[in-house]
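Single Protein Entry

Contents — chain, fold
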Amino acid sequence: MDSSGNIFIADTQNSVIREVLASTGNIQTVVGVTTIRARAVRASTVATAARLSADLCLPSSVFVDGSSNIFIADFGNSAVREVVASTGDIQTVAGTGVAGYNADNIPAKTASSICPQACLSMRPVTSSSPILLTTLSVS
């Protein structure tokens, strides 16, 4: 939920992010391509794109920070994506698009991720505050 009371939903089956507007109760797609097609793309190959042309793949969670930036656990693309409120562009902030584990204490964009399940922040996200992730372990 954002500061205006709008509710954001990770529509996993349709690979989009939806918003329920507090003012009207109407729902709309705010991130992702709404046509049904294979969406798995390497997150690292799409540096920046417009939010409504973004190729999400099975987004599993979403949150909105105090600046209205939208963060998405992009499960199928093994990445965390951010929609920058000021531009409407989406960018990868964590993950390479390749599932796996390669190390701790490395830049987030170079880290492999095993399908992020959720992303959240305990406080407004800044360049120095962490994004907390939960991932699916595959044995």
User: Anything to note?
Assistant: The chain has one domain: 7-117. Residues 42-47, 122-127 have pLDDT under 50 and may be disordered.
